[in-house]
Amino acid sequence: MGVADQEDEEYHEYVRSALPALRRLAYVLSQDGHRADDLVQSALVKLYLRWDRARTATNRDSYARTVLIRVFLSERRTGWARRVVLVDHLPESMVTGPDPAATLALRAALATLPAKQRATLVLRYYADLSVDETAEALGCPANTVKSHTARGLAALRRLLPDESYPTETRSGR
């Protein structure tokens, strides 16, 4: 087996293990299963093309997550989402959790946020990344992450006034 074959096998093994988490993250960002699949596919192509760099990264999951977020943000900048409308409303889906109605309301409100605010909130509170980890994934300063977090949470509070949210954001994480 040659070096290229070993690298390909290593890539395939990594994708098999990381695919479920990448797809969940893409779904939370895009709010659509088909778009999530497209985002993950685009991210995996980019990851494969940069596998020599990714395979030596100290945290491959972080590297892959960053690629996925950048694919999502790039798509939002190109205007594809404004030109193509796949559905006129969010689909009804099975949601496991304490309150399915609140989860759907939160997802619908999250979908109304600008792409960077949405990506910031998803990374901070869904992927449970710190401010610095989120800044690295988004390629921006930590203060920008804090600003996007504050604005995004304020927008969600306006859109969902009946929900109870933490009064403070995490400062160290």
From TrEMBL:
State whether keyword Transcription regulation applies. Answer: yes
Which InterPro entries does this chain map to? RNA_pol_sigma-70-like (IPR039425), RNA_pol_sigma-70_dom (IPR014284), RNA_pol_sigma-E_actinobac (IPR014325), RNA_pol_sigma70_r2 (IPR007627), RNA_pol_sigma70_r4_t2 (IPR013249), RNA_pol_sigma_r2 (IPR013325), RNA_pol_sigma_r3/r4-like (IPR013324), WH-like_DNA-bd_sf (IPR036388)
List the Gene3D superfamilies: 1.10.1740.10, Winged helix-like DNA-binding domain superfamily/Winged helix DNA-binding domain
Q: Which UniProt keywords apply?
A: DNA-binding, Sigma factor, Transcription, Transcription regulation
Domain RNA polymerase sigma factor 70 region 4 type: from-to ranges:
104-156
All residue ranges annotated as the RNA polymerase sigma-70 region domain in the record: 15-80
Taxonomically, the superkingdom here is Bacteria
The chain's coiled-coil residues are: none
Regarding protein family, the annotation reads: Belongs to the sigma-70 factor family. ECF subfamily.
Write the protein's name.
SigE family RNA polymerase sigma factor
Organism equals Cryptosporangium minutisporangium
